[in-house]
Design brief:
By secondary structure, this protein is of the alpha/beta class. Helix content is 34%, strand content 24%. The two termini are 34 Å apart. Bound molecules: nicotinamide-adenine-dinucleotide (NAD).
């Protein structure tokens, strides 16, 4: 990338698609997962805050900031379950990385695609550390925008070989199955969530509904299952029955945020949960035994977006899939911002 501080590299949706296709979709997610693992291992040094959410009747708009003291990042993201019926995305996002030293932005990017990649990479990291060894079959409940990414990240990073799909809307399952054709995964379309869970070692729930939904009920979850609960990520929006939570070992990203947004909003405020980053550093154990039910109550935390932006910045070192944005007003004399405006008027004639 160029060293001109005034010009900020910008990755558009088109360039993001091309960059990811240049690299390979699964390789990109594996790369992002590596950055997430690195950042989870240095978790204590990050600035952390629950995301700043602006709720409305139809959805939420959120800001997700963090910093490791060298770089600062934030993501703008929405969640509007009703959008899909109107032909719009449920989740869209963009984000920025800046230098802590100067405060200048160093990268601006679309993050709708990048969020799907990082969310899948995060599920894969959780699954890698928490699922039973030898897990090979994934049940995927909710076959919308996130679903293929979830399947492919778990294939690449966790050696999943078959995926059992269920969605309340059969057309979503058809779309997902079609998109996964030729991926090397054995794909089974299921008529009920119960059927999807038959023989599954891991289940990812990624449905979108702004209510306390019961995507997984107690009788569906047997001993040894690992659950990635991804879709419950807002106050009043959950997927997993409380009784399952009570028999699970629950792992979260950042407890103060997950208590507000995650499945555990259904539990007492002091119900014990474990922090995923501590499993990666070895400070706490992961899965206790083959019988344990492990739940990754994933709501999406700012550090994962920061990791994804760091991955992107490094990927652009060897790629020209970006434009340069004239985003920083930076006169030669830093105090003469007004003079810069006058000189431009003179140039305009
Ligand atoms: P989407 O709207 O594209 O797909 C959601 C799918 O869920 C749809 O196909 C819908 O038919 C299905 N669905 C709704 N209710 C269902 C039910 N009761 N049973 C089965 N299927 C049902 O949404 P998306 O972009 O794929 O996102 C899925 C969820 O993941 C959203 O709730 C979103 O907010 C969340 N999300 C979480 C993270 C995270 O980091 N945890 C990141 C991105 C998205």
């Amino acid at each position: 990338m160029k060293d001109n501080l005034n010009m900020v590299p910008f990755v558009s949706v088109e360039n993001m698609m091309r960059l990811v296709l240049d690299i390979g979709i699964e390789t990109a997610m594996e790369g992002i997962a590596g950055y997430i693992e690195d950042d989870f291992r240095r978790w204590p040094l990050f600035d952390k805050t629950p995301r700043v959410a602006s709720h409305s009747q139809d959805g939420v708009i959120e800001l997700m900031p963090t910093s490791d003291g060298i770089d600062y990042g934030f993501k703008y993201v929405n969640g509007h379950p009703k959008n899909m019926k109107e032909g719009l995305q449920t989740v869209t996002a963009f984000g920025l990385l800046a230098s802590v030293e100067t405060g200048y932005p160093v990268l601006l990017s679309e993050m709708t695609l990048l969020t799907a990649l990082r969310t899948a990479a995060t599920s894969a990291v959780a699954t890698k550390y928490l699922a039973r060894k030898g897990s090979s079959c994934l049940a995927l409940i909710g076959n919308g925008a996130q679903s293929e990414f979830q399947a492919l990240a778990l294939k690449r990073i966790c050696a999943i070989t078959s995926v059992r799909l269920y969605d309340a809307d059969r057309a979503a399952t058809r779309k997902c199955a079609r998109n996964l054709e030729g991926s090397g995964l054995e794909v089974v379309e299921c008529a009920t969530p119960q059927q999807a869970l038959e023989g599954a070692d891991v289940v990812t729930t990624c449905t979108a509904d702004k209510q306390y939904a019961t995507i997984l009920s107690d009788n569906m979850v047997g001993a040894g299952l690992h659950i990635n609960g991804i879709g419950g990520d807002c106050p009043g929006k959950t997927e997993i029955h409380r009784d399952i939570l009570l028999r699970s070992d629950i792992y979260v990203e950042y407890p103060p945020q997950t208590r507000i947004e995650g499945e555990i909003q259904q539990l007492e405020a002091d119900h014990p949960v474990k922090e995923l980053w501590q499993v990666l550093t070895g400070e706490i154990e992961g899965r206790a035994n083959e019988q344990a039910i492990t739940l990754f109550d994933g709501v999406g935390f700012a550090i994962e977006d920061f990791s994804a932006l760091r991955w992107l910045r490094d990927a652009l070192e060897t790629s020209d899939r970006y434009d340069e944005l004239d985003m920083i007003a930076d006169p030669d004399d830093p105090r003469d911002l007004y003079g810069m405006l006058l000189r431009e008027r003179a140039r305009m004639g």
